[in-house]
Amino acid sequence: MSKDVKDNQEQEELNEMHEDAGREQEATEKEECRQAEESDRKLAELNDKYLRLSAEFDNYRKRTLKERMELTKHAGEQILEKILPVMDNFERALKSMETATDVPALREGVELIYANFKDFLAQNGVKEMECIHTDFDPELQEAVTKIPAPVEELKGKVVDCIQKGYTMNDKVIRFPKVVVGE
User: Which residues pair with 142 in a beta bridge?
Assistant: First the structure.
């Protein structure tokens, strides 16, 4: 073989190699383009899912807030409906005070209304906190003042209750105001 033929063959082989490399590069570029398009599609799909989920959660939050407000509103209505008979009894007592001459009977009527109201509170989970002659607890009681203890056993204990405290379902809704012996 001559040098020219050999050079031509080498040139043809080089051209084929370049063409093969070009085809491989083109195939690689097409694959990369396809993968990029697939990634873009998946990203758009995930973004759409995220937006829908976010909107759904926002709607859920608004709906539950509205339901909670409605529940609170209606719970207050029910309690007020139940307290109206006590209010009626107080009005009757006030009316009878204008013409009453029998003070013990009037006192008994007011005591009945008080007992009725106390029962109403108990039915709604409200309990009076007992605090007289108990150890002073700053977590559960509010000290208004300190006085010298009348007896040695009452030092550091509640001597007097100025304002009663109440709990509702084991949660303090009003702290008692107390006088502590020292």
Answer: 177
In terms of pTM, does the model score above 0.85? Answer: no
pLDDT tens-digit series, residues 118-159: 998 898 889 999 999 899 999 999 999 999 988 888 888 999
Residues 135 and 175: beta-carbon distance below 8 Å:
no
Domain range summary for the chain, segments of one domain joined by + = 125-182
Interatomic CA distance for residues 4 and 13, integer angstroms = 14
Enumerate the β-bridge partners of residue 168.
126, 171
The topology (CATH level 3) of 125-182 is Nucleotide Exchange Factor Grpe; Chain A, domain 2 (2.30.22)
Separation of alpha carbons 133 and 149, rounded Å:
11
Q: What is the pLDDT of residue 141?
A: 94
Residue 95 to residues 89, 99, 107, 108, Cα–Cα distance (Å): 10, 8, 14, 15
- Residue 133 Ramachandran class (φ > 0 left, ψ -120 to 50 alpha, else beta): left
One-letter amino acid identity for 166? Answer: Y
> Which residues, given as ranges, of the chain have pLDDT below 70?
1-2
